[in-house]
Amino acid sequence: KVVSQASAKRASFPELLRRKIEYRRRMRKLRAVMKGVCGFVAMRLWVRRKYNAQKMMVHLLNRIIERAAFREVVAKFNHIVKQIQRAARSFIRRKRAWCKKASKLWMHVEDKHLADFYSYSEKESRDDSVSRRSSGSRRAS
């Protein structure tokens, strides 16, 4: 009776074979699913890496563009400063020439006034001395 129970509990060869085939089919399906999931995760990581690389490249290109724009602004500013310096130097040259002419003119005007003053004062002193002599007194009033 014990042997008959053991044989009754024990499955037959075709049944074992069927179970083993089912088990292997399930395992293949699970492997395929796991492979698909792992592939999806790997692809997701690859896409994320690519996206991050693209973001970094976009950021780098934006920085380059900003730098180029900044360089352009600085170049314009330097150009304006150079124009102002050119104008200032030109003004100083013109001013120096004008000052030379004005000082020469002023020297002529000053010399003329001084000459007029000295000739007038000399004339007056002569007139005073003539009038003193004619009045006869030593004291001039």
> How far do the termini sit from each other?
180 Å
Shape, principal axes of CA atoms: rod-shaped
Order of helices and strands: HH
How many distinct beta strands? Answer: 0
Q: Structural class per helix/strand content? A: mainly alpha
Look at the structure and give the mean pLDDT. 85
Q: Describe the largest sheet.
A: none
> What percent of residues adopt helix (DSSP H or I)?
over 70%
- The count of helical stretches stands at 2
Topology, element by element:
Layout lengths: L1 H8 L3 H123 L6
What descriptors fit this protein?
2 helices, 0% strand, 141 residues, mainly alpha
Describe this structure in a few short sentences.
The chain is mostly helical. Helices cover 93% and strands 0% of the residues.
Care to describe what's here?
The protein is 93% helix and 0% strand. It is mainly alpha-helical. The longest helix is centred in the middle third of the chain and has 123 residues, at 13-135. The radius of gyration is 58 Å and the shape is rod-shaped. The N and C termini lie far apart (180 Å).
